[in-house]
Amino acid sequence: MELVYEGKAKRVYKSGGLYVMEFKDEVTAGDGAVRATAPGKGALAAETSYLLFRYVSPAVQTHLVDFKPPNALVVKPAEVLPVEVIVRFKAYGSILKRMPRLRSLQPLFRPIVEFHYKDDALHDPLIYPQEVAEAGIASDAEVAEIERAALAAAKALRDLYARAGCDFVDVKFEFGKVGGRLVLVDEISGDTFRLLCNGEHLDKEYFRKTRDATGLVERYKKLLELTKSLLQNS
Length: 234
Fold this sequence. Notes:
Layout: E1 2-6, E2 10-15, E3 18-23, E4 26-29, E5 34-37, H1 41-56, E6 64-68, E7 72-75, E8 79-90, H2 94-98, E9 107-117, E10 126-127, H3 129-134, H4 140-162, E11 167-178, E12 181-185, E13 193-197, E14 200-201, H5 205-210, H6 213-232
Helix pairs in contact: 1-6
């Protein structure tokens, strides 16, 4: 296979007319300023993403083709948009810095959908949806479709984990185009959402707070087991 891209958490290979997205046993924080090796993390994030891509697919189209054990997904080649879309159900993280009158974990009256320009050097700045269109990244209609799809996927995930009494705080999505059609890409895992179960983070926030990669892997194991259990009983 031909390596076509390597990022902080994944390597992407070309395999025929498809891509193989390999998840690395690495964890980062602070736009990559903090790095650690986390043996087993890649396999856990890959399988969790596979299950959750399939789970949200009735509401949102994705780039997923198949799971390639132990730590890779087979996906359709996509033209990835340089935008991250965050859906917030509760106030946490960067939103508290720009709006200090919000309390940590304060429920929001309705979900907030944010667009961020994807650039580590700029620290992924918050941008207006109109700016996405003005910059030629996506049309007005596509921006509206991205917002709809992000909300649909986020609400599906929130409802899934609510069955276990867990608090789905927020989630970050990426979108791309396959054959000119918008689809959800990248991953859906503890690296991209915040999930509190009995007050415990089963997501990367644990590493941001502790720098404990071993403990993070243990929490990703819990997340995968919980996800499998909920999907089997759905």
